[in-house]
Amino acid sequence: MTRSGIVSAIIGFLVTGILIAFMEGNWVNGLLAFGVPSVVFLAVELTKKRTRKLSDLNLPDTDERVSGNIRLFLLRIFGLSLLILFVILAIFSSLNKNSISVNVLLLYVIATFFISFIGIGIVKKR
To answer: Could you read off the pLDDT of 14-37 as tens digits, one per residue?
Structure first.
């Protein structure tokens, strides 16, 4: 992305943060609404630049066996994560709690995707 695109994205995040701060009357939420997406966006852009430099090395693509192993790994991870989710649901229903906290579900989803994508990165490097 060009510098003007990065600057316009940061300005967009700033305007969003200011609007949220005025609507909620809390500057901390506005600062978070500006800061978190800005930091994530800049980290992604820096990672893209770094991977572009690595892609210039003209490394060979993965063969079909590696691609099949990656698909099999993803299927196993998501199957295991669904099994864990059903176990958590069974535990909560046996404790007579009819709902799961949003924090637990968010942690579960983040952990599932984190584990799967870290695993893919390891498999592709080998």
So the answer is: 887 887 778 777 778 778 777 888
**Residue 126 contacts residue 84 (beta carbons within 8 Å):** no
Q: Per residue in 43-64, pLDDT tens?
A: 888 777 766 665 555 556 667 7
Helix ranges (DSSP H) in the chain: 3-24, 27-55, 64-94, 102-125
Tokens of 125: 């490097």
> By CB neighbour count within 10 A (0-12 exposed, 13-18 middle, 19+ buried), where does 40 fall?
exposed
d(C-alpha 75, C-alpha 81), whole Å? 10
- Structure tokens belonging to residue 86: 């059903």
**Beta-carbon count within 10 A of 6 CB:** 14
Report the predicted TM-score, pTM, of the whole model to 2 decimal places: 0.42
Distance CA 4, CA 19 (A): 22
